[in-house]
Amino acid sequence: MPYKHAPYYVLVVIAVTIAGFWPSYFGPFMTVPWQFHAHGVAASIWVLMVLAQSMTVHKGQLPLHRAVGKSSLILFPFLIGGLAAIIDLTGKGFVAANDPFRVALGGQFLIGLALAIAAYVVLFYRALKFRRKVWLHSGYMLATPLILFESPFSRVMGMVLPQFAIRGPQDMDRLIPSIEWAMAVELAIIAVLWWRFRDKASPFLVAGGFIVAQMLTMGLMGGNRMLESLLTVIGNAPSAAVVLTGMAIGAATSWAGWQAGKRPMAEMPTFSARHLATSGPSSSATNRTRLTSFPPGGPRRWRRGRCRSDSRPNGSCRCARA
User: Fold this and answer.
1) What's the pLDDT band for 308 if we cut at 50, 70, 90?
2) CA-to-CA distance for 58 and 201, rounded, in angstroms?
3) Could you give the angle at the alpha carbon of 74 between the alpha carbons of 70 and 79, nearest 5°?
4) How far apart, in Å, are the Cα atoms of 110 and each of 105, 116, 120?
């Protein structure tokens, strides 16, 4: 199977996620806003699902692998709904002006999250569409943890590198650069995968395209009035409407991807009337096969051998006189 070290890669993603989000999510788990839980729980289950998919296929547990894969059809709407919940929280904070980070960088957060949703939709849709092509399917599924991986990784960078440490609003100017450096690390990982596997790693190039788009838009669209106007609309909208919109996008992706990956009728084995007519026990083709297929030695030896085993004397058998 492809990517034999994939489980270790997913375990590293899990470890970085726990370390990066421990101060802001896993540590104060009971006191964070509900939007954090909507995103954090769904995204955590998603990464664990990718880990289970990778481990089961490498252990040859294909029925379990398929069962876990089918569960992703139900999980994906919650994953996109969780990202929409973070957009909702960003909009609410921007409108209420109760968070200096969301007020100053809300537009950049919005475009980054919107591109993340688009990346998840494309990657998962194509993973479902090409689920019968092992390299493509596994590549698209394994590329999904890279989307938004820069968020926990940039936090880990801030823990170990003073130039990326963010202790409060006074360090706000370090936030976007730390995220973009984390994205650069993601692109380096993708480059290594492409160098090693070439065209087989094309799904990671698709993910890399979205990461580059995030880098450019988040780096160049700071203070964009159009994004801030859209964020204001989202902030004034009901939270349920924002989250349900995200879930609807996820559900549509699951359905469309599953339908696109179905085997065409032309490729499915069918037993047509013509097939039955040429393969049945009374068909002329079968009879021709019976009349013209003999063991080594030819038809006469076969007839003589059959006669000798007959209960009748050889002389009374028409085969013997042939």
Assistant:
1) very low
2) 18
3) 120
4) 9, 10, 15
In whole angstroms, give the CA distance from residue 126 to residue 97. 39
How many whole angstroms separate alpha carbon 190 and alpha carbon 207? 8
Residue 298: the pLDDT is: 52
Residues 185 and 153 sit within 8 Å (Cβ to Cβ): yes
Tell me, what's the pLDDT at 263?
83
Domain map (residue ranges) of the chain: 6-267, 278-316
Which residues neighbour 234 within 8 Å (Cβ) at sequence distance 6 or greater?
Answer: 87, 88, 90, 91, 110, 242
Q: Give the number of other CB atoms < 10 A from CB of residue 72.
A: 21
Rounded Cα gap, residues 28 and 24, in angstroms:
7
Q: Is the pTM of this model over 0.85?
A: no
Residue with structure tokens 């034999």?
A: 4
**Cα-based distances in Å from 197 to 7, 131, 200, 201:** 17, 19, 6, 6
Alpha helices in the chain (DSSP H): 6-21, 34-58, 62-96, 100-129, 134-143, 150-160, 175-197, 202-220, 225-236, 239-260, 273-279, 284-292, 298-308
Letter string b/e over residues 164-175, b meaning 16 or more CB atoms within 10 A of that residue's CB: bebeeeeeeebb
Percent of the chain with pLDDT over 70: 82
Give me the pLDDT at residue 268, please: 59
Q: For helices 150-160 and 175-197, what crossing angle results, to 10°? A: 120
Judge whether residue 143 has pLDDT over 70. yes
Q: How many C-beta atoms lie closer than 10 Å to residue 278's C-beta?
A: 12
What are the tens digits of pLDDT across the range 226-276?
Answer: 999 999 999 999 999 999 999 999 999 999 999 999 987 666 555 554 554
